[in-house]
Design a protein that fits this description.
Layout: E1 4-5, H1 19-32, E2 41-42, H2 45-52, H3 56-69, E3 72-75, E4 79-82, E5 91-97, H4 102-114, E6 119-125, H5 130-140, E7 146-149, H6 157-161, E8 169-173, E9 183-187, H7 189-199, H8 201-204, E10 210-213, H9 222-234, E11 239-242, E12 255-258, H10 261-273, E13 283-287, E14 301-305, H11 307-320, E15 325-328, E16 330-333
Parallel strand pairs: 1-2, 5-6, 5-7, 7-8, 8-9, 9-15, 10-11, 10-12, 12-13, 13-14
Antiparallel strand pairs: 3-4, 14-16
Helix pairs in contact: 1-3, 2-3, 4-11, 7-9
């Protein structure tokens, strides 16, 4: 008979879980880390109850849930044995982002394709509205195995996300107000924006001034604006920041960094009406790569992270469950618009 395996308690923060859920998470991590191998017997119910300091029924409930998930099977008068390193039941994943714009659509499609057959995904949008986020979280606390959330700058964010067990949260893109509390796959907007603009400095110097169109009520990361200011200060670039292109006179000979695609479209329309040549009369830089920006007006220069890479990291987290603190680099894709 296979010798029962002693279950070692893992290092994850399990403080928000029930006793049986803590045991389930501990066993699953031990199986995935190969501390317990397929074919091994789990620690007997009586011994596990003593080691964990819980009632026998708590252990039985945990082992039966592991059985339902497909990790173990029970054998009469022998105990519970590991039969699989992965759950046979699809994980239920709730993706909560600000909106379904083109680059997040790219992220979602890539992520969905990579986890096909492993999990079921539903998607909600918070639109940078804390009341909407709170409503989404409160209504779905017990309905999903994993919450994938793009944070934003609001003083209540930490409290609302704190209602979810930490091991059930993955922060993506932005970690405003929740730094280092959860697994995360994020962008460095400050450093990435500064570094990308430095790479474009020679092109930017062709223009009289560089204008950042940063909508005040959009909810975009303030660290992006900080990165822009740092670049302009250190590289002595004449600049200004505006809320909208509607509020200024777009000038020939200037360059523009636009965050929202609505402002990009407005800028391109203005240039078309005035018969200005993009990349010569006016410089254009957009934020976040999409397939369309590669082809419109002979190509739009973008500052962007690789959303396919972010999706791959998300899928790998789904498959392994390993602790993760990942920053996706932000880069410059130089095209004819600059």
């Amino acid at each position: 008979m296979t010798k029962p395996t002693i279950i070692s308690k893992n290092r994850r923060n399990l403080s928000n879980l029930s006793k049986s859920e803590r045991i389930i998470e501990t066993v699953i991590e031990s199986i995935k880390n190969s501390n317990i191998l397929v074919g091994d017997a789990l620690t007997s119910v009586n011994v596990a109850a003593r080691d964990f300091g819980v009632a026998r029924q708590t252990i039985v409930r945990a082992y039966e849930k592991l059985k339902k998930l497909g990790f173990v099977e029970s054998r009469p008068r022998k105990g519970y044995f590991v039969i699989n390193k992965q759950s046979k039941i699809k994980k239920r994943v709730l993706l909560i982002i600000h909106s379904f714009n083109a680059h997040f659509e790219l992220l979602y499609n890539e992520f969905r394709d990579q986890v096909d057959g492993i999990c079921d995904i539903e998607i909600y949008f918070h639109h940078y509205n804390i009341k909407i986020l709170e409503l989404i979280i409160n209504r779905n606390l017990d309905s999903y195995d994993l919450f994938i959330v793009s944070s934003f700058d609001n003083q209540r964010i930490a409290n609302i996300l704190g209602r979810i067990p930490a091991n059930k949260v993955l922060i993506i893109s932005r970690n405003d107000r929740v730094e280092n509390r959860y697994n995360e796959i994020i962008q460095d907007f400050e450093g990435g924006t500064n570094d990308a603009l430095i790479l474009a400095l020679e092109k930017i110097k062709k223009y009289k001034s560089l204008t950042l169109c940063f909508p005040l009520k959009s909810g975009h990361s303030k660290s992006l604006e900080i990165g822009f200011n740092k670049f302009c200060s250190e590289c002595s670039v004449s600049n200004k920041i505006v809320d909208s292109l509607q509020n200024i006179d777009v000038r020939k000979g200037d360059a523009y960094l636009v965050i929202d695609d609505a402002d990009l479209i407005m800028l391109l329309k203005i240039c078309k009406i005035r018969n200005w040549k993009i990349g010569i009369d006016v410089g254009v830089i957009s934020y976040n790569e999409t397939p369309l920006k590669e082809v419109i007006r002979d190509g739009i220069t973008v500052i962007t992270c690789n959303f396919k890479s972010m999706a791959s990291e998300m899928a790998e987290f789904i498959r392994t469950g390993s602790n993760l603190q990942k920053t996706i680099p932000i880069s410059l894709i130089l095209r004819n618009s600059l």
